[in-house]
Amino acid sequence: MGHQGDRFRQRSNRELLCDAVSLSTRIASLEAQRVAAVTEVERRCTRTDHGYASTKGWLSSVTLVSPGAAGRIVELGVGLAEQPAVAEAFDAGRIAPEHALLIVRFCARPPKGMPAEALPGCVAALLAAADGPLARTDGVRTAIAKLEAIFESDEQPASEDIDRNELFVSKTLNGRVAIRGDVDAVTGEMLLTALSKFSAPRPAEDGARDLRTPGRRRADGLTQLLSMLLAFGDLGHEGGERPHLSVHVHARDLGQDRREEYTRRQAGACATATANPPASHSTHDKHGTDDTDETSSDETRAPGWADDLAEGRGIAWSPWMGPLTVNTARLLGCDANVTAIVLDDHGVPLSVGRTHRTVTRAQRRALAARDRGCAFPGCGAPPAQCEGHHIIHWADGGPTDLDNLVLLCGAHHRLLHITDWDVTTGRNRQPQFTPPAGVGPTRTCSATRRGSRRRAGEHPGRSPAPAP
């Protein structure tokens, strides 16, 4: 330890604990001051003043702050200028910078279904979730996910939007391979689950701790994972189970139809707007002077449903990535192992039922024989790349039999869960797909056998509908 550590060696344990807390408080105060100073630089200074194309570039070049962290500091400062309630909590040291940034990002891009009058109450609820040293990022993200579910629009949240996925794998000049990517929450959950066993610390035989950095452990884990997949196609076991994707969701939420749920949330948004009408801020007295009314405390008070944000109702949960929408849980539950867990009123498990497969191996073989791959018109992905989809979800009482199942590739499976595409079983016991209204002049189209070039909505002898 360097000279900085010398001053603490003679301190008692109690004094040392107090020193650590005091220094942390001072660092939080200095962080708030840095954000304020950088915000003013962003507002006033130009390339002529600091010589860089952006405040982010200047800050990362003249300090030890990384470019990514510099960008977040600038983003946070700009957001706090628009949200004084969040700025007050941050300046007072009640919320961490990363939590403040999550809240201002929510405010900058609120759910489309949320009325403007509901924003102050939502901010108050998020500040309550982020307040104090026991607040955790997953808790704040859960509260945000719950608000997005309450005021849900037809758009997918950014965390589940697969159209944003990117993976770059490139050879470098020195003969190595650089990997960089940005993937959705479900893909991230699968990746972290697969790497978990192989990237854990491995103490030496004499008990010495693993000296590898987390980044090195993940790289070693990826090497071992790829070696096992190529050699055996087997990931072994961790915690007594084969690595798998786990999603926890309340049975009541899982059984809620997507369109019914959207209608319910829209009604909730309207009720919130009615309960929180815009306040009048100024009046004129008979002398012509302005009497400015103080903003009602109800505007910034957490709404009645704020206490429900941390309960996890209305959202699903994955162990690595945290909150997911119920709609994604329904998609993943179409072809999965399902275990019923009975909880008491406090969320404590009382009993665990038997795990059963929603689509058995025998049914998958029968589906492969009938559909010959993805049944969506014009696709034809092979059966090995497909999943079983319940036409009427089993959580809604749909049976798991061939007449209620259809084989779909991952892309078209998601399409049926997030859009108005419908599938039914025709008189010939073959899947019949119905595109959303406005996609094309023809409303019903048959499943296409693998190898056919016919596109979605296209019938022999009729004009084709645009492909989705």
Automatic annotation (TrEMBL):
<keyword id="KW-0540">Nuclease</keyword>
<feature type="region of interest" description="Disordered">
    <location>
        <begin position="256"/>
        <end position="306"/>
    </location>
</feature>
<comment type="similarity">
    <text>Belongs to the Rv1128c/1148c/1588c/1702c/1945/3466 family.</text>
</comment>
<dbReference type="InterPro" id="IPR003870">
    <property type="entry name" value="DUF222"/>
</dbReference>
<protein>
    <submittedName>
        <fullName>HNH endonuclease</fullName>
    </submittedName>
</protein>
<dbReference type="GO" id="GO:0008270">
    <property type="term" value="F:zinc ion binding"/>
</dbReference>
<dbReference type="Pfam" id="PF02720">
    <property type="entry name" value="DUF222"/>
</dbReference>
<keyword id="KW-0255">Endonuclease</keyword>
<feature type="region of interest" description="Disordered">
    <location>
        <begin position="425"/>
        <end position="468"/>
    </location>
</feature>
<dbReference type="GO" id="GO:0004519">
    <property type="term" value="F:endonuclease activity"/>
</dbReference>
<keyword id="KW-0378">Hydrolase</keyword>
<dbReference type="Pfam" id="PF01844">
    <property type="entry name" value="HNH"/>
</dbReference>
<dbReference type="GO" id="GO:0003676">
    <property type="term" value="F:nucleic acid binding"/>
</dbReference>
<feature type="domain" description="HNH nuclease">
    <location>
        <begin position="362"/>
        <end position="414"/>
    </location>
</feature>
<dbReference type="InterPro" id="IPR003615">
    <property type="entry name" value="HNH_nuc"/>
</dbReference>
<dbReference type="InterPro" id="IPR002711">
    <property type="entry name" value="HNH"/>
</dbReference>
